[in-house]
Amino acid sequence: MIKPHNVNSEFELSGINHVALVCSDMARTVEFYSEILGMPLIKSLDLPGGRGQHFFFDAGNGDCVAFFWFADAADRVPGVSSPGAIPGIGDITSSVSSMNHLAFHVPPDKFDSYRQRLKDKGVRVGPVLNHDDSEIQVSPTMHPGVYVRSFYFQDPDGITLEFACWTREFTENDTQAVPKTAADRKVPVTR
Protein backbone atom coordinates (compact mmCIF):
# COMPACT_ATOMS: atom_id res chain seq x y z
CA MET A 1 0.00 0.00 0.00
CA ILE A 2 1.47 3.35 -1.04
CA LYS A 3 1.52 6.02 1.69
CA PRO A 4 3.85 8.98 2.18
CA HIS A 5 6.63 8.11 4.63
CA ASN A 6 8.69 11.26 5.20
CA VAL A 7 10.60 12.05 8.39
CA ASN A 8 9.61 14.99 10.58
CA SER A 9 12.80 16.71 11.76
CA GLU A 10 11.05 18.72 14.50
CA PHE A 11 8.55 16.42 16.25
CA GLU A 12 8.01 12.68 16.45
CA LEU A 13 4.47 12.64 15.05
CA SER A 14 2.97 9.29 14.14
CA GLY A 15 -0.29 10.32 12.51
CA ILE A 16 -3.54 11.97 13.51
CA ASN A 17 -4.74 11.26 17.05
CA HIS A 18 -8.20 12.58 16.22
CA VAL A 19 -10.06 15.20 14.24
CA ALA A 20 -12.96 16.78 16.14
CA LEU A 21 -16.07 17.79 14.19
CA VAL A 22 -19.49 19.09 15.25
CA CYS A 23 -22.77 17.28 14.56
CA SER A 24 -26.43 18.23 15.02
CA ASP A 25 -27.69 14.80 16.12
CA MET A 26 -25.30 12.49 17.96
CA ALA A 27 -27.58 9.44 17.67
CA ARG A 28 -27.70 9.84 13.88
CA THR A 29 -23.93 10.42 13.79
CA VAL A 30 -23.30 7.22 15.78
CA GLU A 31 -25.55 5.30 13.39
CA PHE A 32 -23.77 6.66 10.29
CA TYR A 33 -20.17 6.26 11.46
CA SER A 34 -20.69 2.93 13.28
CA GLU A 35 -23.22 1.20 11.03
CA ILE A 36 -22.63 2.71 7.58
CA LEU A 37 -18.85 3.23 7.80
CA GLY A 38 -18.19 0.48 10.37
CA MET A 39 -16.09 2.62 12.73
CA PRO A 40 -16.23 1.31 16.30
CA LEU A 41 -17.38 3.83 18.92
CA ILE A 42 -14.56 3.80 21.49
CA LYS A 43 -15.38 6.64 23.90
CA SER A 44 -18.45 8.70 24.71
CA LEU A 45 -19.00 11.35 27.33
CA ASP A 46 -21.39 14.06 28.39
CA LEU A 47 -19.83 17.50 28.78
CA PRO A 48 -20.15 19.24 32.16
CA GLY A 49 -23.17 21.42 32.79
CA GLY A 50 -25.27 19.86 30.03
CA ARG A 51 -23.27 21.76 27.37
CA GLY A 52 -23.11 18.78 25.04
CA GLN A 53 -21.40 15.49 24.26
CA HIS A 54 -18.08 14.25 22.84
CA PHE A 55 -17.82 10.85 21.08
CA PHE A 56 -14.78 9.14 19.51
CA PHE A 57 -14.74 6.60 16.65
CA ASP A 58 -11.82 4.36 15.64
CA ALA A 59 -10.85 5.25 12.06
CA GLY A 60 -8.10 2.60 11.87
CA ASN A 61 -4.31 2.78 12.07
CA GLY A 62 -4.56 4.37 15.54
CA ASP A 63 -6.43 7.41 14.18
CA CYS A 64 -9.82 8.59 15.46
CA VAL A 65 -12.66 10.81 14.32
CA ALA A 66 -14.42 12.62 17.14
CA PHE A 67 -17.67 14.55 17.26
CA PHE A 68 -18.98 17.21 19.55
CA TRP A 69 -22.69 17.76 19.96
CA PHE A 70 -23.29 21.21 21.45
CA ALA A 71 -26.76 22.13 22.74
CA ASP A 72 -26.34 25.67 21.38
CA ALA A 73 -24.36 25.07 18.15
CA ALA A 74 -25.32 27.16 15.13
CA ASP A 75 -26.49 25.36 11.98
CA ARG A 76 -24.17 24.62 9.07
CA VAL A 77 -23.92 27.30 6.37
CA PRO A 78 -23.10 25.57 3.04
CA GLY A 79 -20.43 27.47 1.13
CA VAL A 80 -19.22 29.12 4.34
CA SER A 81 -18.71 26.68 7.22
CA SER A 82 -18.50 23.75 4.80
CA PRO A 83 -18.47 23.23 1.03
CA GLY A 84 -21.77 23.71 -0.76
CA ALA A 85 -21.30 20.47 -2.71
CA ILE A 86 -18.91 17.58 -3.09
CA PRO A 87 -16.03 17.56 -5.60
CA GLY A 88 -17.13 16.40 -9.00
CA ILE A 89 -20.68 17.64 -8.41
CA GLY A 90 -20.46 21.33 -7.46
CA ASP A 91 -18.61 24.20 -5.75
CA ILE A 92 -16.22 23.04 -3.03
CA THR A 93 -15.22 26.43 -1.57
CA SER A 94 -15.52 26.92 2.18
CA SER A 95 -14.39 29.70 4.53
CA VAL A 96 -11.01 30.20 6.15
CA SER A 97 -10.63 27.98 9.27
CA SER A 98 -13.44 25.67 8.20
CA MET A 99 -12.80 22.00 7.64
CA ASN A 100 -13.31 21.43 3.92
CA HIS A 101 -13.38 17.61 3.99
CA LEU A 102 -12.03 14.56 5.79
CA ALA A 103 -10.30 11.89 3.70
CA PHE A 104 -9.93 8.26 4.74
CA HIS A 105 -7.18 6.14 3.21
CA VAL A 106 -8.55 2.94 1.65
CA PRO A 107 -6.72 0.06 -0.05
CA PRO A 108 -6.44 0.60 -3.82
CA ASP A 109 -7.67 -2.94 -4.57
CA LYS A 110 -10.89 -2.30 -2.58
CA PHE A 111 -11.54 1.24 -3.82
CA ASP A 112 -14.26 0.39 -6.37
CA SER A 113 -16.00 -2.19 -4.18
CA TYR A 114 -16.10 0.27 -1.26
CA ARG A 115 -17.74 2.89 -3.47
CA GLN A 116 -20.38 0.35 -4.53
CA ARG A 117 -20.89 -0.76 -0.91
CA LEU A 118 -21.67 2.84 0.14
CA LYS A 119 -24.11 3.18 -2.77
CA ASP A 120 -25.77 -0.10 -1.72
CA LYS A 121 -26.19 1.38 1.78
CA GLY A 122 -28.03 4.37 0.30
CA VAL A 123 -25.18 6.88 0.51
CA ARG A 124 -25.02 9.36 -2.37
CA VAL A 125 -21.45 9.24 -3.72
CA GLY A 126 -19.75 11.48 -6.22
CA PRO A 127 -17.89 10.32 -9.31
CA VAL A 128 -14.50 8.64 -9.16
CA LEU A 129 -11.82 11.31 -9.54
CA ASN A 130 -8.35 10.34 -10.75
CA HIS A 131 -6.38 13.36 -9.50
CA ASP A 132 -3.44 14.32 -11.73
CA ASP A 133 -1.34 17.34 -12.70
CA SER A 134 -3.27 18.16 -15.89
CA GLU A 135 -4.88 21.56 -16.42
CA ILE A 136 -8.21 20.37 -14.95
CA GLN A 137 -6.39 18.21 -12.34
CA VAL A 138 -8.57 15.16 -12.88
CA SER A 139 -8.61 12.42 -15.47
CA PRO A 140 -11.46 10.11 -16.49
CA THR A 141 -8.95 7.24 -16.68
CA MET A 142 -5.94 5.96 -14.77
CA HIS A 143 -2.49 6.86 -16.16
CA PRO A 144 1.05 7.15 -14.68
CA GLY A 145 0.45 10.83 -13.72
CA VAL A 146 -2.49 10.05 -11.41
CA TYR A 147 -1.28 10.42 -7.81
CA VAL A 148 -4.51 9.69 -5.93
CA ARG A 149 -7.91 8.18 -6.74
CA SER A 150 -10.87 9.31 -4.71
CA PHE A 151 -14.58 9.81 -4.42
CA TYR A 152 -16.56 11.99 -2.05
CA PHE A 153 -19.78 11.70 -0.09
CA GLN A 154 -21.41 13.45 2.86
CA ASP A 155 -22.45 12.40 6.33
CA PRO A 156 -25.97 13.25 7.60
CA ASP A 157 -24.83 16.77 8.65
CA GLY A 158 -23.30 17.56 5.26
CA ILE A 159 -19.69 16.98 6.36
CA THR A 160 -17.80 16.11 3.20
CA LEU A 161 -15.94 12.80 3.45
CA GLU A 162 -13.57 11.18 0.97
CA PHE A 163 -12.30 7.66 0.37
CA ALA A 164 -8.85 7.99 -1.22
CA CYS A 165 -5.89 5.84 -2.18
CA TRP A 166 -2.43 7.00 -3.21
CA THR A 167 -1.34 5.55 -6.54
CA ARG A 168 2.33 6.53 -6.75
CA GLU A 169 5.27 7.77 -4.71
CA PHE A 170 5.85 11.54 -4.50
CA THR A 171 9.03 13.28 -5.69
CA GLU A 172 10.48 16.81 -5.46
CA ASN A 173 8.56 17.62 -8.67
CA ASP A 174 5.32 17.30 -6.68
CA THR A 175 6.08 20.39 -4.56
CA GLN A 176 6.61 23.08 -7.20
CA ALA A 177 3.52 25.26 -6.56
CA VAL A 178 4.44 28.61 -4.99
CA PRO A 179 2.42 29.25 -1.79
CA LYS A 180 -0.12 32.09 -2.03
CA THR A 181 -0.50 34.72 0.70
CA ALA A 182 -3.48 36.50 2.25
CA ALA A 183 -2.81 39.36 -0.21
CA ASP A 184 -3.61 36.98 -3.09
CA ARG A 185 -7.19 36.42 -1.87
CA LYS A 186 -10.11 37.81 -3.89
CA VAL A 187 -12.00 38.94 -0.80
CA PRO A 188 -10.89 41.55 1.74
CA VAL A 189 -8.88 40.11 4.60
CA THR A 190 -10.43 40.90 7.99
CA ARG A 191 -8.36 41.02 11.15
Automatic annotation (TrEMBL):
The entry's keywords: Aromatic hydrocarbons catabolism, Dioxygenase, Iron, Metal-binding, Oxidoreductase
CDD domains membership: VOC
Top-rank taxon, per record: Bacteria
PROSITE patterns registered for this protein in UniProt: EXTRADIOL_DIOXYGENAS, VOC
Gene Ontology molecular function, alphabetical: dioxygenase activity; ferrous iron binding
Domain VOC, chain residue ranges per copy: 15-166
Cofactor(s) demanded: Fe(2+)
InterPro entries: Glyas_Bleomycin-R_OHBP_Dase, Glyas_Fos-R_dOase_dom, GlyoxalaseI/FosfomycinResist, VOC_core, Xdiol_ring_cleave_dOase_1/2
Similarity section: Belongs to the extradiol ring-cleavage dioxygenase family.
Name under which the protein is recorded: VOC domain-containing protein
UniProt source species: Mycobacterium botniense
